Amino acid sequence: MKLTLTEEQEMLRKTARDFLADKCSKEFIKQMEESETGYPRELWQEMAELGWIGLAFPGKYGGGDMSFLDLAVLLEEMGRACLPGPFFSTVILGGLSILDVGSNEQKQEYLPEIIRGEKIFTLALTEPGYDNYDASSVTVAAARNNNNYIINGTKLFVPDAHIADYLLCVAKTKPGNGMTIFLTDAKNPGIKYTVLKTIAGDKLCEVIFGQMPVPEASILGQLNQGWDVVQKIVQRAAVGKCCEMVGNIQRVLEMTVDYAKERKQFDRPIGSFQAIQHYCADMATDVDGARFSTYRAAWMLSEQLPCTKEIAIAKAWTGKASQRIFALAHQIHGAIGATIEHDLHYYTRRAKAAELAFGDADFYQEVVAREMGL
Amino acid sequence: MDFSFTEEQKKFRLEVSNFLEDEIEKGYWKPACDAWIQGFDPEFTKRVAHKGWIGLTWPKEYGGHERSHIDRLILTEEMLRYGAPAACHWFGDRQVGGAILSFGSDDLKKEFLPRIVKGEAYFGLGMSEPGAGSDLASLQTRAVEDGDYYVINGQKTWASCASFAQYFDVYVRTDSDAPKHRGISEFIIDAQSPGLSRIPMIDITGTEAWNDVFFDDVRVHKRYLVGEKNRGFHQVLHQLDYERSGMERLMGNYALFDSLIQFAKDNRLSQEPVIRNKLAQLQIEFEVGRLLIYRVALVMEEGRAPNWESAMSKAYSTEFEKHLANVAMEILGSYGQLTSNSKLVPLRGMALHSYLGSKGYSLQAGTTEILKNILAVRGLGLPSS
Questions:
Q1: Binary contact (A299, B280; C-beta < 8 A)
Q2: Is B284 close to A317, i.e. CB distance below 8 A?
Q3: Which of A72, A296, B178, B211 is an S-S bond match for B198, by CB 3.0 to 4.6 Å?
Q4: B28 interfaces chain A, CB cutoff of 8 Å
Q5: Residues B142 and B104 in one domain
């Protein structure tokens, strides 16, 4: 047992932190939130050249042959920097899913393009309604028509769909839980996009498929057997979101402690008051709980160990912990933290978005209950 | 990062749990909440010693086994999981032995460590006094030099395991003129010393949980001074870091957790959404606490004394224990109020015992408030208040 990073991971962390400190200012984030695409092409290319996009892919596709645990370190830094853009969609939702279940042809066709930063991918899974990670909530259907499938219906909260080159679309192909994942051309005129206005200014889209034909060859994995794959994708995405949140809340803890040391009232730093000290202590405990539970899940994924329960614990804990942390961070920052002049809101808004993505605390609490045999 | 246990560690865990299951099967004892601190069973301690499981991390020179802190955590985790009556050796093994190892003379090490390891020396603690709780440095019990001896007068309170302790690890004032935290020294005192007397204190569960310990001209030879004279406060902080470090802070009432889950399953209560949620939330909190405590063991494994890390895990864990007891009482409803000797009592009365007993968990070995101060000042670098 060891709870520290390897030397290589420490180097990766440092490189990422320096690079993002330079490239990802709060002014930049603001611009990206307001922009239509949500990311600049040049930065995407730079990240590809740094080997970040390909980090966890095999060398034979041009990847870095590193592990999911290494990727977790990078995701943490991205969360710490509030980095906007389609890294998560392309790598965690798209690329790693293709690596998992794609045919050799699909892997050879798509992975090198992803790794070189040439193509954006995302996952179109959730739909209108409130039970989004349950198979019964998928109503978008793909009906067979000769050698094609015709996809119809609406997907919701699809990240970066408006800039994507390909969508992994989860559609019902058989009554019951017969789900299939289609690797569809996102630029097809049969798809309509609306970018929703969200708390984090990230680009979550409504995606409407209107009689869109996709060839049988675009099936990713097995026909009708897609739901197991979807669950795996969602689980990995949940851990990925936890990693981003750990970076986020760690930074918020540091900002808050720094502020408590500097801000003076009654002729002394407010951090010398016991009430503030205890708030900070509570925040630190929540952050460390999130860190260890998240890295345990990431490590288990990396080692390919069964970890449904550990993932659920990580996401449930981190989601609730994040709520507590932001309540205290705002309380300690006082009124300035409630303004757009201060940076805190960037973290507050992103943490909430990450908390909601790929299953919230209530969702995973139920998973834990099932895993306990209740 | 690596969250796995080695094959040897897994084997060791199995060996410990097999041993404990066998003990339960033979009817030697029943799993109980708080047995680590209230379960007085010299024969059990002897059997544990015979397995070589006391002083696990200590040098072989003093009878120890030079095993890792992770091994020790595995051992204690299993002891707590089964609610084993380990109170006779717990304090000596957990902290007094370590204090003697860190600060004691070679003579003291030779006198006490091998006996602790053999399960033959039980320790109690003499830290708190009626007027010195969280502000421990204001303690008033004093020791005055008289030739080769010190003469001790005063009163200690909240002494756990005191009724069966053979020795007390006691902190007393040896310099009244120095600043209050620079005039304290640590002594090992034989509980049978003339002038030492104990009066039991009954806690709100009805258990004799502590003793008042009185010192009336108790003479202790100078060789039982642990470490340097007047350096005792530094030593007690160090010892408290260890006292707070372990799984007992999370698993003191684990026997209740296991039984409660089983009870909910058996009675189909676990299908009720409200109850499912409560139990799942406890499981989440439990596993997070476990990771916080493993971090502490890894700090020790690096050769560092845990400080804010054990303050964090202890403050967190005692809240978990209280939460567990609260949930148990909620789930049991009216049955929760039945005492262990009542008709119809569920779960052998563990919920009620734990509900009442857990009020003290966040007080002993550093109140939650003091622990958060430590975490804020030492861990986060906030200015002292």
A1: no
A2: yes
A3: B211
A4: no
A5: no
Locate A288 and state its tokens: 């460390």
CATH architecture assigned to A7-120 = Orthogonal Bundle (1.10)
CATH topology of domain A228-371: Butyryl-CoA Dehydrogenase, subunit A; domain 3 (1.20.140)
Distance CA B381, CA A163 (A): 45
Partners of B126 in beta bridges: B170
A327 touching chain B per CB within 8 A: no
Domain enclosing residue B202, as ranges: 124-230
Decide the pairing of beta strands B123-126 and A219-220.
Answer: unpaired
Q: Which residues of A touch B276 (CB under 8 A)?
A: 366, 369, 374
User: Using one digit for the tens of pLDDT, what is the confidence trace for A63-88?
Assistant: 999 999 999 999 999 999 999 999 99
Element (H, E) at B153: strand B149-160
Taking the Cβ of residue B373 and every Cβ of chain A, the question of whether any pair is shorter than 8 Å is answered with yes
B295 in reach of chain A (CB within 8 A): yes
Which of the 8 DSSP states describes residue B384? P
> Of the candidates A4, A268, A281, which has its C-beta nearest B376's C-beta?
A281
The domain spanning residue B79 has which CATH number? 1.10.540.10
Rounded percentage of chain B residues whose pLDDT exceeds 90: 97
What DSSP letter does each residue of A144-169 carry, written as one string? EETTEEEEEEEEEEEETGGG-SEEEE
Would an 8 Å CB–CB cutoff place B288 in contact with chain A?
A: yes
Tens of pLDDT, residue by residue over B107-160, are: 999 999 999 999 999 999 999 999 999 999 999 999 999 999 999 999 999 999
Contact B252, B34 (CB under 8 A): yes
Q: Do B279 and A274 touch (CB under 8 A)?
A: no
Q: What CA–CA distance (Å, rounded) separates A344 from A340?
A: 8
B12 and B95 both lie in a single domain: yes
Measured between CA atoms, how close is B250 to chain A, in angstroms? 14
Residues of chain A with pLDDT under 70: none
How far B74 CA lies from chain A's nearest CA (Å)? 12
Predicted confidence at residue B336, as pLDDT, reads: 97
Q: What is the reported pLDDT for A182?
A: 98
Residues B117 and B135 placed together within one structural domain of the fold: no
Query: B72-120, pLDDT tens digit by residue?
Result: 999 999 999 999 999 999 999 999 999 999 999 999 999 999 999 999 9
CA distance B138 to chain A (A): 20
What's the pLDDT tens digit per position in B236-292? Answer: 999 999 999 889 999 999 999 999 999 999 999 999 999 999 999 999 999 999 999
Closest chain B C-alpha to A248 CA, distance in angstroms: 17
A122-226 sits in which CATH class? mainly beta
pLDDT (0 to 100) of residue A134: 87
